[in-house]
Design goal:
heterodimer; A: mainly alpha; two-stranded antiparallel sheet; 20 helices; 3% strand; B: mainly alpha; two-stranded antiparallel ribbon; 21 helices; 2 strands; globular
């Protein structure tokens, strides 16, 4: 395979952004952005095809000297875990452009540039093998995301944007301190693979684990660090919500897998039970909060908190089923939650309301839309045959192996998920059409029409993955077996040399 | 020349101070030129000023790496001083370029303006090369006195006059404290030469309360010059009242010079007594970060906000000194180098906002800039993110380097405080981005751009991005320039 595939995937959007600088026509800008991300996605396919699933080693590795003074290299590579997220990110990029086609009317150029830069940074995070490079991409995401929420968001966007920015910055800046501490502890290197091999004392692991944990927990977001998420989701434009839910949240859990489990296995095991407990709290609490929402976006935002609880729990179970289920569920959540936000965006463009009480006519007036929504709602609640089911059942297997009573909680979480999703769907599709008038307008006189071609393409593309994962999960699980096996070896091996307390 | 004098210096010593002599000589000459040229051709003076900086820079370049110690060890030409002089040259040229249009707008277009800048520059250069407390003091005063006058250069503005008054009184006060500290050091060690002081500290027993008092005096005196907490009280008023190009100059030039001196004195002269001054500097550093950044949040004037932000930045840079290692020294040097670009860049935009009746010095004046002037707003955005330390900008690398130096010495606690304070600092920088991009403009913007100003902005912008993405060369340069401990 070509030696620069990963670099091409990461920097193609940047190139696209530079081209956009010189284009004036809004229509042309949309097309250039779409083509750029389309090609980017097309590049991600050979990445997936050319990936050798029989090894846990890093593939498509690129390495060049960058800042020799600090032994920092431009070091990229993917393993069976990250390759899926590079693919997911590239895929959702296309969906984002489609979702913003009409929703973004002002400052189209700036929006598409921000989106493309964001895309590059996210792809970079999943492909970096040098921790400095990782942090660079990680923080660089803040700027475009801040602008996407703050400039193109809803009425309360400024507050939400600043909250998002400060929360995530405060979380991740401590990680920077932890990173530097690792650098010196492992003998002046930011090479993540070397850092994984190195042995650290227990006390050191505990401290650095906590520094990393805060950064990732804010991103996930885990209870009690979740308060920025509903605000950010509610105010963000549809594409912003898709990026947030689809990719950004995965970075937190990806961080746990990539850093915490491999570099600080002893600390990870030390903290495993408390983390599982707060994951459970998140599952139940998120579900209840979702049930209480009237705002569609808030409902899905809280459902994300609940779903991410499943994932963090799966990760800290330290067994194959749990971790594979968690990774698959990360992928699934990226697909289904993005799809739900897309659905909300589509209907919001027509009615300009997100209050469930304003709907109730979806099944009768926009039947195709209602069908799509139904499928994604089922996928989100984990209905057999959809992707959500596979992920949740794997995590449940994993939980059963560790401690059986966890299953009861998981069951409650799944039931809660079914409750709020069906509540939402009933409210949207089959609610009493309280205003009792027919015709083509909603209760506020907005004209509503069913999904158009562009929206249908985006929704269908997402549905492909819902059933693909649902019926043939091995196509995706196959990528991660070797890498997860290796991860578990690293995570269960004791690393510290005696008690360094 | 009689033999007694010859013992102190040889004619060759003058070669070492050639760049300083060029600057000081040209400054004197420009005073005359200013009288000679007609009012319509006033651009001759700034042009000659830039030229003389260029000539001095060329001499410095030719002399670089010679490691000459001149005037009986009172003056040295080492990598360290060369690095700082590079910063000073850049800052001085930038300050001249951004002033061109501004001083016409403010009707203070006098040749003395540039003359004073050059005198200050020559003082800063002597500070960087001084290896004797007396040379250092001489340089310090030569650098400060012209700035006192420049702060009050807006004769018609009461704020400017008041600022100059405050600055000169407090400045004189701090110089006195510093002198007292120097005299105590002299009394304890019998010398004012840094190398000899260091030797005396190693051999003699000077760790008494008197020595502590001397250290406190030095910290207070230098703390004033870098505007570190709690000696920063003058900074907001002086920064706000001064003509904006002078504000930019003060925050990047004399401040960097003060850092050059602090590091020289504490890491060369007083290094054996590291334990006794480390805590004092750390306290100033933490205080500056906390007070500077938190107070900056409350400001409504952009110049005051940047003044407090510069107090905060002084705190970060001081942390590199607290680390007390060569890496720490190099991190401070790199920080100041980067800060010069960020600072001149952002002040360049503040200067652009000053046109006709538009004062442009309130934060609220930036509302909606992103709508009407996209490129200016984009440049401002990049400078702000760099000041906040968000990658991939140079500001991030600078902070990162300081953190590296600290953690390498095991000072994780300080690194954590610095990290948290930079999250606080992000708030007030990001707020301006918010105003620029997320609010509708209240009125039409008129920007006073000029060729010189655009030139500065483009170079600063390029430097902030390039040093953020590919900092390797300048990190190595700073490392190479740091003197061995």
């Amino acid at each position: 395979m070509s030696g620069h595939l990963l670099s091409s995937i990461i920097f193609l959007p940047v190139l696209g952004a530079l081209v956009l600088l010189f284009i004036k026509d809004a229509r042309a800008i949309r097309w250039v952005a779409l083509v750029t991300l389309g090609v980017d996605f097309a590049l991600a396919i050979p990445l997936l095809k050319g990936f050798d699933v029989s090894t846990h080693g890093m593939q498509f590795v690129e390495r060049h000297a960058w800042i020799p003074s600090w032994n920092i290299t431009y070091y990229l590579g993917v393993d069976g875990i990250s390759v899926l997220f590079v693919f997911l990110t590239a895929f959702l990029g296309v969906i984002c452009v489609l979702a913003s086609w009409k929703a973004i009317e002002k400052k189209v150029k700036e929006f598409m540039i921000a989106l493309l830069i964001m895309q590059a940074a996210m792809l970079g995070v999943f492909s970096s093998l040098d921790m400095f490079l990782f942090y660079l991409f990680w923080e660089a995401m803040l700027i475009p995301m801040y602008l996407i929420i703050g400039v193109w968001g809803g009425p309360n966007r400024v507050y939400s944007a600043i909250k998002f920015f400060l929360y995530t910055l405060a979380g991740s800046i401590l990680m920077l301190v932890g990173m530097i501490a690792l650098y010196f502890a492992a003998g002046n290197t930011f090479d993540m693979l070397v850092l994984m091999e190195h042995k650290y004392t227990f006390a050191f692991q505990i401290w650095v684990f906590m520094a990393f944990f805060v950064a990732f927990a804010v991103k996930v977001p885990m209870f009690p660090f979740h308060t920025w998420l509903p605000d950010a989701h509610v105010e963000a434009p549809t594409a912003g919500s898709i990026i947030l839910a689809g990719v950004l949240l995965k970075m937190g859990t990806y961080g746990f897998l990539r850093f915490c489990l491999t570099m600080f296995p002893d600390a990870s095991r030390f903290f495993a039970t408390p983390i599982i407990v707060i994951s459970i709290v998140a599952i139940i609490y998120g579900a209840f909060l979702a049930l209480a929402q009237k705002d569609l976006k808030k409902l899905v935002a809280y459902s994300s908190i609940s779903h991410m609880g499943f994932i963090t729990m799966g990760i800290f179970l330290f067994n194959k089923n749990g971790i594979e289920g968690a990774i698959l569920q990360m992928f699934n959540h990226g697909i289904t939650t993005s799809a739900l936000f897309l659905c909300i965006g589509i209907i919001y463009e027509r009615t300009h309301t997100r209050d469930i009480g304003d709907y109730g006519w979806a099944a009768s007036r926009v039947p195709v839309y209602a069908t799509f929504l139904f499928i994604f709602a089922l996928a989100s609640l984990g209905f057999p045959g959809t992707n959500g089911f596979i992920g949740e059942i794997l995590i449940a297997f994993g939980a059963y192996e560790v401690y059986k009573p966890y299953l009861i909680v998981l069951l409650m979480g799944i039931l809660g998920g079914a409750a709020y999703m069906l509540y939402m769907y009933k409210g949207m599709a089959f609610g009493a059409d309280s205003h009792g008038h027919d015709g083509h307008g909603d209760s506020h006189g907005h004209k509503v029409w069913d999904v158009d071609f562009r929206e249908a393409i985006a929704l269908l593309a997402l549905i492909v993955f819902v059933f693909w994962v649902g019926f043939h999960p091995e196509d995706f699980l196959g990528y991660m077996h070797e890498s997860v096996g290796n991860l578990i070896n690293q995570a269960t091996a004791s690393k510290f040399e005696g008690l360094g307390l | 020349m009689n033999s007694e004098v010859a013992a102190f210096f040889s004619p060759g010593d003058f070669l070492a101070i050639l760049p300083e002599m060029v600057i000081a000589g040209m400054a004197c000459l420009l005073l005359l030129v200013d009288i000679a040229v007609p009012r319509t051709k006033k651009c001759v003076v700034p042009a000659l000023a830039v030229l003389s900086v260029a000539v001095a820079a060329w001499f410095s370049y030719e002399l670089a790496g010679s490691g000459v110690s001149a005037f009986s060890g009172m003056f040295v030409l080492d990598g360290y001083s060369d690095f700082f002089k590079l910063i000073f040259y850049i800052v001085a040229v930038f300050a001249i370029l951004v002033s061109l249009r501004y001083i016409r707008t403010e009707e203070i277009d006098l040749g003395e303006y540039y003359v004073l800048l050059l005198f200050s520059l020559s003082g800063m250069m002597i500070m960087a090369s001084g290896t004797d407390l007396l040379t250092i003091y001489l340089g310090l005063e030569l650098a400060s006195l012209p700035v006192y006058a420049l702060v009050g250069f807006l004769q018609k503005s009461r704020k400017s006059n008041e600022a100059a008054m405050k600055y000169i009184i407090l400045g004189a006060f701090s110089s006195a404290i510093l002198l007292y500290g120097i005299s105590l050091i002299y009394g304890l060690t019998g010398t004012t030469q840094l190398a000899a002081i260091s030797a005396a500290l190693v051999t003699g027993d000077v760790n008494g309360p008197l020595f502590t008092l001397a250290v406190i005096m030095l910290v207070a005196g230098f703390g004033f010059k870098v505007a570190g907490f709690p000696f920063h009280m003058w900074a907001p008023d002086a920064y706000e009242g001064a003509p904006t190009p002078i504000t930019a100059f003060m925050a990047a030039g004399p401040k960097a010079a003060a850092f050059a001196v602090i590091m020289r004195v504490f890491l060369e002269g007083l290094y054996p007594a590291y334990d006794s001054w480390q805590m004092a500097i750390a306290a100033v550093a933490v205080g500056s970060m906390v007070v500077g950044n938190i107070t900056a949040i409350l400001q409504t004037s952009i110049k005051r906000m940047l003044a407090f932000s510069s107090v905060g930045h002084a705190g970060y840079a001081l942390l590199g000194l607290v680390a007390g290692s060569e890496e720490g020294m190099a991190s401070v040097m790199f920080y100041l180098f980067v800060y010069a670009f960020m600072n001149l860049g952002i002040f360049g935009i503040v200067i652009m906002m000053r046109k006709d009746s538009q004062s442009g010095d309130q934060i609220s004046h930036y509302t909606g800039l992103g709508k009407s002037n996209r490129l200016t707003a984009l440049a401002m955005l990049i400078f702000l993110f760099s000041l906040a330390g968000i990658p991939p900008t140079a500001g991030f690398i600078a902070k990162f380097y300081v953190f590296m130096a600290l953690i390498n010495k095991g000072m994780v606690g300080l690194a954590v405080i610095a990290a948290l304070m930079s999250a606080v600092a992000a708030y007030y920088y990001i707020r301006i981005v918010m105003l620029m991009y997320m609010r509708e403009p209240e009125k039409e913007f008129a920007l006073a751009s000029s060729r010189g100003l655009l030139c500065v902005l483009i170079i600063a912008l390029a430097a902030v991005v390039a040093l953020g993405v590919y900092p390797g060369y300048f990190i190595d340069l700073a490392r190479y320039a740091a003197f061995p401990l």
